[in-house]
Amino acid sequence: MERLRAFIADPQAVVDLRRYFGIDLPPRKATFTGSRFEHLAGGGDRSEVADRITAEDLVAVQTLSVTVPAPVALDILEGSLGARLSGLLHAIPKDIDMVEAEESDLAPGSLADQAWQLLEDQPDVGWVIAGKLLARKRPRLLPVYDKVVRCALGRPRPSFWLALHAALRADDRALHRQLLALRQVAGVPQTVSALRVCDVAVWMSHRPLGHACPR
What we know:
Number of helices: 10
Low-confidence stretches: none
Largest sheet: none
Distance between the termini: 24 Å
Number of strands: 0
Radius of gyration: 16 Å
Strand content: under 5%
Helix content: 40-55%
Order of helices and strands: HHHHHHHHHH
């Protein structure tokens, strides 16, 4: 994760975060729709909806340039898929940051991994959409991980979640503290998790290198 530390330490990260979240821009003038991902309708992790995927969550992931296929969306909202996901979400830690989690909360076979696998296995969903949906529901615990971030940081084994977890906890949680400091310096609201600060800093820096998809 040395490449990740370089992204976070780059002074350009402050500029990129302010641009992404529209800091000091007029209301609703943010450059990137993804700036609304965590805040749309009060957030996907607010207590009354934290354990179920809602229509608002399905719209929120569209701000990150992905769309849940309609049949899967309907099954989530009205069918057995939604019920199975709710059962898993109910048991996944809510009010903790990834740095505070146990490795067992994120390891292959964990409840979070089971929820990810269940979504990833749905027709035309795949790993990117699955990850973004879960990041909407557990923004402090689970990261956004898409093709741009994977290109920038690679495919750690056994998983990106565990590699990021280890990096955040290393050296007395130095990286986590750097992300919080970066958030403060950039003027990003505290309601944006350290994981999203990390994601946006990497995505904004790496995107111009050939990954120009909007978000």
